[in-house]
Write a structure and sequence with these properties.
InterPro entries: SBP_3_CS (IPR018313), Solute-binding_3/MltF_N (IPR001638). With 301 residues, the chain is an alpha/beta fold. It is built from 10 helices and 10 strands.
Length: 301
């Protein structure tokens, strides 16, 4: 995948801090959960065989030091009390439990996570990082999710993302949906002699979602886990419009050649096999991006 797709979206959002730290606030339209999903945290047991494979430094400290950039809801953000929460957090906590250690989250600028992994400051980088061929030259990745672009529409009011000419489409400002994806679709409309898409940028994703819920726009385009969570929070007001596209794997970054990549892979695969992983994705409404097989270095481009 190129920087025009998911790889670029995550870096751009993290660098510019465009997403709001709180949960979606869809005034008068939703039942917002500022502290995350209503379901209880998934309980996970230690697996001694896997815990024994951790590097000695991590076993002795009893913790995984995890570099993370926020906010990027629902994957990683701060709740009303300032605690770092999210889908990524719940899954990493579960992996840490399998390995008999605690995950310690340290905030970082997105662009500093990989250099800090290389320098040994963090054991793991976890921040909705797309596993790409370019990044695999710097670090290794353990894959745990697939993400792409996902459109949403009002319930029962279908929109075709490939033929949205003349429609109002909400996006979060500065994202690739705003700068590349929707403009490219609009240009195609114009080239075919059809009306351009009326692109409506909003500073925060919550505002873009709110515009759709209230019927101020016909559709919205956002990253697939962001759209999935917005739908979950909307109390049935909005739904998906078309399939996820431009998908690529998320990965946890570790130093190049580090044995930790394989240990994390075995731990998350254990959770995939026993159903705990899927339970966590469903808690956050992001199960559409769930995978059944984790690999080390699974970049598609």
């Amino acid at each position: 995948m190129s920087d025009r797709s998911f790889l670029g979206r995550r870096a751009l959002r993290a660098t510019l801090g465009a997403l709001a730290a709180g949960a979606l606030v869809l005034t008068g339209c939703t039942n917002t959960e500022e502290t995350g999903p209503s379901a209880a945290k998934v309980q996970v047991d230690k697996v001694d065989e896997l815990a024994a494979q951790l590097p000695d430094k991590i076993k002795q400290s009893g913790k995984l030091v995890v570099g993370v950039n926020i906010p990027y809801q629902p994957n990683e953000y701060k709740d009303a009390s300032g605690r770092i929460v999210g889908f990524d957090v719940d899954l990493m906590d579960a992996v840490a439990s399998v390995l008999g250690v605690k995950a310690e989250y340290v905030e970082s600028a997105f662009e500093k996570i990989i250099p800090s992994i290389q320098a040994g400051t963090y054991d793991v980088g976890m921040s909705s990082i797309t596993d790409s061929k370019e990044r695999e030259q710097q670090v290794d990745f353990t894959t745990y999710f697939n993400a792409g672009v996902q459109w949403a529409q009002q319930k029962g009011k279908p929109i075709d993302p490939e033929n949205a000419c003349g429609k109002k489409v909400a996006v979060q400002a500065t994202t690739v949906e705003h700068t590349d994806e929707v403009p490219a679709k609009s240009a195609k409309c114009v080239a075919e002699g059809k009306p351009a898409i009326d692109i409506k940028p909003f500073d925060e994703q919550s505002a873009a979602t709110n515009a759709l819920v209230l019927g101020q726009v016909d559709a919205m385009s956002a990253d697939s886990p962001v759209t999935a969570y917005a739908i979950k929070q909307s109390n049935g007001k909005i739904e998906t419009a078309g399939p996820v596209f431009d998908s690529a794997p998320y990965g946890w970054a570790v130093p190049k050649g580090a044995p930790l990549a394989a240990v994390l892979q075995k731990a998350v695969q254990h959770l995939m096999d026993n159903g705990k992983y899927l339970e966590i994705t469903k808690n956050w409404g992001v199960q559409e991006g769930a995978i059944t097989k984790s690999v080390v270095n699974g970049a598609v481009s």
